[in-house]
Amino acid sequence: xxxxxxxxxxxxxxxxxxxxxxxxxxxxxxxxxxxxxxxxxxxxxxxxxxxxxxxxxxxxxxxxxxxxxxxxxxxxxxxxxxxxxxxxxxxxxxxxxxxxxxxxxxxxxxxxxxxxxxxxxxxxxxxxxxxxxxxxxxxxxxxxxxxxxxxxxxxxxxxxxxxxxxxxxxxxxxxxxxxxxxxxxxxxxxxxxxxxxxxxxxxxxxxxxxxxxxxxxxxxxxxxxxxxxxxxxxxxxxxxxxxxxxxxxxxxxxxxxxxxxxxxxxxxxxxxxxxxxxxxx
Length: 281
Hints:
Layout: E1 8-10, H1 20-30, E2 34-38, H2 54-67, E3 70-79, H3 88-96, E4 101-106, H4 111-127, E5 131-135, H5 145-154, E6 167-170, H6 173-178, E7 196-199, H7 211-220, H8 232-237, E8 244-247, H9 260-276
Parallel strand pairs: 1-2, 1-8, 2-3, 3-4, 4-5, 5-6, 7-8
Helix pairs in contact: 1-2, 1-9
């Protein structure tokens, strides 16, 4: 169910402890078009052990086929000074699941090395039919939209002659706000550069002076779209009309709702209200 012509996906962080198969079913029941799936362990130890397990991969693929849910992205790859580690299993899994994007972050302070690192990763992702999708965060080495756009453009991220680029930028309104960003900064950015954004809310609005607090907030402090102070409708109004939406809003930091389908539906209703400007729409 697209909303206003926008593809709407549910990010796995919204209920991280829910196993991928059950997560896909919850998203399907609620009416989403797609999902984002976390296939590598989280920092606090959640690991659904899909990578390397042919049986679980097959079950997940069957569930996607049965529900018609598409995989928007898989995550996450961290581009560090010593490289991203072994990423081929993640890329192969993303390709097998039909994912479009693989989310990455830059955690390398060296400006030359991070360009080379993103370029190499983007090329490898392209070999697997995925686009390296750079998420900027105030607590990373790529803290702002301008930093992300500049980095992607340096690795050939701007499409030429109408073709698809090797990398693109992921806007998360939480990270955009905490990095001092404003809604109008996304105005005019081409769809190929920003094909989709994440959506959540926070309170209060404003830039962050504490990267550690911003990191903790990103995992445990998100609110449903429209429940906080972010200028989400203004942000969406500046986007290309074809920009997709990935809802990334865990329930008050909880990752295991009693009823995943009901929580997914509640998040979708909140998202619809933001996108349409009509509460309860």
